[in-house]
What does this fold into?
Amino acid sequence: MKKLLNKITELLSKEDNEPRSKKLYGLASLYNTPDEIIKAAAAVAGRGFEKFDVYTPYPLHGMDDAMGMEKPKIGYVSFVFGFLGLILVLLMMWWMSGIDYQNIIGGKPFFSLPPSIPITFEGTVLLTGIATTIGLIILFAKLPSINSPIQDTEFMGRVTSDKFGIVVKADDEKFIPDDVKLLFQTAGAFEIQEIYYRESNLTNKTPLFNGKFFVAIIGTAVVTAIVSYFTLNWVLYDVVPFDWMWKQDRIDAQSKTNFFPNNSGMRMPVNGTIARGFLPYEYKGMPDSSVRLLANPLAVSKESLERGQDRYNIFCSPCHGYYGEGDGRLRDQFPKPPSLHNQKVMNWTDGNIYHVITNGQNVMPSYAEQISVNDRWNIVNYIRVLQRSKNASDEDLTKAK
Amino acid sequence: MSFDATYARELPLVESKASFREIDDAIIKPTEEKPRKGWWVAFGISFTALMIGAYCLGLTFYYGIGMWGNNQPVSWAFGIINFVFWIGIGHAGTLISAILHLFRQKWRTGIARFAEAMTIFAVMTAGIFPVIHTGRPWLAGYLLPLPNQNGVWVNFISPLLWDVFAVSTYFTISFLFWSLGLIPDIATMRDKAKNGVKKTIYKVLALGWSGSNRSWSNYERAYLILAGISTPLVLSVHSIVSFDFAVSVIPGWHTTIFPPYFVAGAIFSGFGMVSTILIIVRKVFGMEHIITVNHLEKMNKILLATGMMVGYAYSMEFFIAWYSGNTFEMFVFINRAMGPYAWSYWTMITCNVILPQLFWFKKIRRNIPITFVLVIFVNVGMWFERFVIIITSLHRDFLPASWAMFYPSLVDLGLLLGSFGFFFTFLLLFLKFLPLVSIAELKAVVEGAQPTIHPHPNGSNGKH
It folds into this structure.
């Protein structure tokens, strides 16, 4: 780990020791006081030099005039982009809420100026600020210029701390080294230095754009994209609570749970609850004879018979068989019920059959919980159909003809 | 200028005339040496608070907003109180860096960088709260007008959306302003650092700044423009925050005094926080000669002025409630001062209006321990101001049948603690890694730093 860190440090600081070429970038001079530098700057500018600059640890008042500079132009960038921001934000709101997505909110117009002012103002300020900063850095201060020849020189170390410096560049038309040196000396420079280009400045190869760096950037971008794609897909669709509430804590009816006192996930209705269609049966537990007066409330109809057949096939056929002959699918596993076509059942009233379904008889349990009152009568109707069809004679066929 | 100069003489901005090297050394020193014990203790405490907040945030994310004490009718509670509190704290930074810059108040240089950093961290802290208040903050992208599959756009006439734009713009501009100010200082640090990782980092961050006058010229103009746009921006941000309330129809919120009232309160609370932290920082980092008692006195004067502004707003609210003849308005204000939350109302009045009156006395303004106690009260008072506005207005509104009390949950308190942890963790990292006073700006206002002559290339030699 320590080795790796050292290696990185070494790699990073390599550039500092980059050898300088023999080609002169410019002549630099250092001064002690603000008065000296401002006089020197005026003198250099007065000689007609154009490619020179003054380096100070903080802005000096009056230096622009001394150097004969024009007024800073950054304000135009701010104005243009501020105005652009104002127009763009207004247009955006007008199109989004006035045209593309019209929504009635409190009966107000889709787009109007007063409520748009706050966001328009913010947008203007935002674009002005960003444009001013970026404009300053790239257009006016010509940054980033990490690799500029004056960086990493002794000169730079002084002018960012406590001294003031002037550099006259070698590519100025009037540049004659001895002339410039003399000018510096008469202006009161306490030190004059020669600044040479770096090797990389001359080959025009900035380290930022060499092949390895480029590959590293593209590689990082691709890896980041792939990793974020899969991570986001996983997080947003599989991880609580980011999964759009697709997964939620719940207790299934047949599952065990510690949430309820009896550890059962199933909840029983409160005692005394009466469900619709399940009114309590008044002859409950009474013998057959007591239900003589119980009459079938349903008329025989196609709907009633179809419903009855449906319910009969679900609830009754397992034991009684599809035709009521007592040969259901559970035969040999469960006591065989008597046929529904025997004389006893044939003679029963509808009420008797209903009573058996509701109350149960011998090993047959009550079906009052599973089958609604109406459906029980539907089943009774259907059983009558079964009895009639199973006990039909030849005469019935003739009659039908 | 012919008036008697001694009469209007400014107190020196830097005590004991320091050389430029000494300024460099004093300001860069904390970033070079190993952190002191005091820093580690402070960092330990704030990081613990941050982790408590993170835990509570985790609970909020997993189980939902139900972990908070909010419930009808008090559906806005700690989340929004903390938001308004922190965004208000930020305003002092912009005021110091931008408005005082426009007014050419040179004394701001000692505290501007620090106050700006505070702004950024306070806005970051503030920004957390409305986002987590939405319940599913990972979907916060829908707050912005971004194209989406549903084909819907945000509601541009909602003050809550104005807030999104105001706060994000505020953060961006404050950050740019702060970063721009840092570039020359990082260049100084770069040239002071020896080889190594540190130097490389500074090198990249300084973007190759050389202190060239052709850069400085545009730099100063850009700085002025940013100060110029930040000034209306800072006023707009808290005005828009106050619209969240003022544009609704809840009695106690629906008032036109809210924007100026909120802005004054924001500056008041922000200066309270700046003073609180500066008093500790100047002591711990040995910067008493750079952040002088004169600075603190000037800030105390601003505290006195803004404290009376909020005092005026408090009384004007009452007056208007009575003057309007609106039963509900009248009830809300009587309920504030005498209802179940009267204790919070009177805490607010005491801390924000009564105690700052002590700053009328010069002895107290220049007495650092007393100032420290008073600014702590200001911080407490301003938190309670937001508590009073939000809770008392909501807990009893039009329908007595739906009145209820608000009780914060442990998670609420943990998030409040966590917000302080978040803010101070960032602040301490800033104090450790970046210069807490603007080196370039400070040098520029030291005595004898500016030329006394103004020569021109054509030879004219203007004397001052």
Notes: The longest helix of chain A spans residues 211-238. The longest strand of chain A covers residues 20-31. Residues 20 and 107 of chain A are 73 Å apart (CA to CA).
